[in-house]
Amino acid sequence: xxxxxxxxxxxxxxxxxxxPDPNAAEALAAFLGEILRWNRVHNxxxxxxxxxxxxxxxxxxxxxxxxxxxxxxxxxxxxAGVPGIxxxxxxxxxxxxxxxxxxxxAAFLQHVQGLLGLVxxxxxxxxxxxxxxxxxxxxxxxRAVAAPAExxxxxxxxxxxxxxxxxxxxxxxxxxxxxxxxRFELRRVEGTATNLIGGSLLIISMKRG
Length: 209
Fold this sequence. Notes:
By secondary structure, the chain is an alpha/beta fold.
């Protein structure tokens, strides 16, 4: 099963121009395998078809790779580790903090971190608004967490002057008006630049000047 999944994942990533090295492909397949195994008991995700998992959990995660900046990355509301774990596998020189308040999902993230030996990953089992001692992050990621205004209320303390928050959106979220704290500016990216993430993308940063 794992070998077939690795082969199919490698094929699909090559088709969309995201081909990883063999070690990364094996780690990504192991990650998906652990999601399936844990999902039988802990209901981590509703997406369990292998093809859909490759697309939603891996391709849509790695599509954000060119937009990462800096060394410190936070995955807010990481859930089953998407997009943080696939990106951490692909970007070993960046450090990823996976923030998850739900105990079973935080336990899963810690399990995967240890299983895959991801020394560039730390798991924070707490609510993001409680992380006043974490400093700031260069890039923040948030998938299906909250509307922009609420998301910024929860994460504003993690922003530095040059930080960016990347928010992949689905079709419904993409149709909502952009509303946010006046300290921030929001930019929506659509079209060919985001054709791998299943919707549009919000890029949020602090206003300058």
